[in-house]
Amino acid sequence: MKSLFIVWVLIVFQSMASPSTGEIDQKKADLFTKITINQVSITPEDYQNKKVTYKGTFRKFSTTFLAYMEKSGFRPNKHFMLLIGDKKVPVIAKKNSSLTSFMASLKRGDILIVYGRIKKFSTKPRKTIRPHYYLELSHLNLGI
User: Fold this and answer.
1) β-pairing, 133-142 with 79-84?
2) Confidence at residue 12, expressed as pLDDT on a 0 to 100 scale
3) Structural domains of the chain, ranges and CATH numbers in brackets
4) What is the secondary structure of 56-86 as a DSSP string?
5) 6 burial level (CB within 10 Å; 0-12, 13-18, 19+)
6) Backbone angles phi, psi at 26, to 5 degrees
7) What is the pTM of this model?
8) Residue spans of beta strands (DSSP E) within the chain
9) What does DSSP assign to residue 114?
């Protein structure tokens, strides 16, 4: 059973595409449901496995993950975690050079528009106050 879980995690996270930055093609943007940061914070389960976009304030990024997040397959050497808006639904992205340089230019308080899919962590946190859902980042750009 344990080996089956490991194979599943590898398949899921190997298929996670590297996010892009900058302007997004309108055809691609139309595939995402526009919501507010409050909607995703209050009821993330309503958007599970759906493509969404929302605007929020950049707070910080990190490559340090909590134990249950690492058990869900996220690694500090392969992923970033961004806090945009509140910390109820973190944004997680696969590292790449364009995202790394974009994030280096960000300042706390910058308005960002995120595009991605809401997913549930495969491992439950010990404390219920911790996030149960995250946004798997597809695209990121500066808001106006």
Assistant:
1) unpaired
2) 39
3) 2-142 (2.40.50.140)
4) EEEEEEES---HHHHHTT--TTTEEEEEESS
5) exposed
6) -60, -35
7) 0.80
8) 20-21, 33-34, 51-62, 79-84, 91-94, 111-120, 133-142
9) E
